[in-house]
Amino acid sequence: MANTIHLEVVTPAKAVLDVKATEVVLPGIQGELGILPGHLPLLTSLDVGTMVVKSEGKSRTFVLDGGFAEVLREKITVLTEACEGVDDIDIEHARQVMAQAEKDIKALEERSKSEPIEPDVMEQHRQMLKRAQTRLLLGEGKKD
User: Could you read off the pLDDT of 116-132 as tens digits, one per residue?
Assistant: First the structure.
């Protein structure tokens, strides 16, 4: 069995990451998934959350915007809407997006008392809030 697994992360805009890793932790929709070289094949949905890539004794952290992962014994392919390294997070922008999402959710909840709201609309705003909270949590954590 090899000591590394090839990780490829692709967004609609570009290939974001193409590295050899000793371990990859992904945000599965039912919890974190730890993937080591030689892992059994797996196809899974991903949630908004943190991806950790361990390689050459170092650990790098990224924010994933959901998606899918295909895990083979020697390769992981992640398809996601967005992938952002923790050092690239704009904390102020994350705060603004979080505040706007919270405001929009409150307005939708208030509106739902008098008229029906499409569940998809509320879910989109909740996902926006979750993305902003994850970015903010990781971005502020990098200062430690």
Answer: 888 888 888 888 898 88
